[in-house]
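Sample entry as discussed:
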Amino acid sequence: MIEIDGSWGEGGGQILRMSVALSAVTGKDIRIVKIRAGRPKPGLAAQHLTSIKSVARLCDAKVEGLEIGSQKVELHPGELRGGKFNFDVGTAGAITLVFQACLIPALHAPTKSVFTVTGGTDVRWSPPIDYFQFVFLPMIEKMGVFARIERVRRGYYPKGGGKVVLHVEPIEKLAPLRLEEKGDLRSIGGISHVGNLPSHVADRMKKAAEEELAGLGKTGIDAKTLGGEDAFGQGGGIVLWAETDRTILGANSLAERGVRAEKVGQTASKKLMDEWKGGATLDVHLSDQVLPYMVLADGESTFLTREISNHAKTNMWLFGHFFDVEFDKTRINDLYKVCVRPS
């Protein structure tokens, strides 16, 4: 059995989600201790329970310690299977974080998987659903992954209530990513949206972002105002992306009470400009999200990033518990070149 210190490094839910996902893929029993030990509310929260349950259902696992507040969990995986699965986080816990946990094992299942998850689509400390759809999924598609989502309804803090369906096709092997230069810019896209708020909020976020990005060329940012069955609760945000002939760089910012819409749009666009001007081939957040797919790929992957985040460092440490993999990190001016060499 592999024992994992859940307080190491970033010390949050990332260790938990990746641990159970890799346990399901490798068939190795795991015990995670000191779960979120350094957080104000240690142990499992609702969204962590949902992540574990999603993976456990996928591999018919036996799980111990699955309760709110638990700081120790054991998972004994069985055989992976596809099928249709429904999960409700019960709060505004992020739907995309549940998808992060179940997507990796679903790729290794013998048949197609369909996940319907209810929770938060655009909440703090997690990738917004538009980033997941327009930045993350297209990037792993370059590795051979075929997955798509249906966004039924957006849901915001504190009640959640959003609903998204994820379709995942199994894959025989993942192709490596070799991203040593960002390539030529093809397009700049984005979605500025609000749910059950005045339409001018989305328009102002869009306009502010367009002004910041004007130097890169014409943008294609959509402004959307949602209500009724399309959004539960009040909220909003903006997700932006720059697509080249080689990669996709993304950035986002959430609308917050007391923060002007222009500031939200400027925050996201400045993040994207930093990534573009810096020469990165994966933005700081995408680099840690794509790492597990690189570890499982059939060959060496390479990318450039402005920063190796705590999430990425924690992932690298964690992967060593399951695989014989090397991470070669070289500083090149203001960038890090990262080479991932699976065994």
The chain has three domains: 2-172, 173-181+279-343, 185-277. The helical segments are 13-26, 46-59, 95-107, 129-141, 199-212, 261-278, 284-295, 310-319. The mean pLDDT is 96.
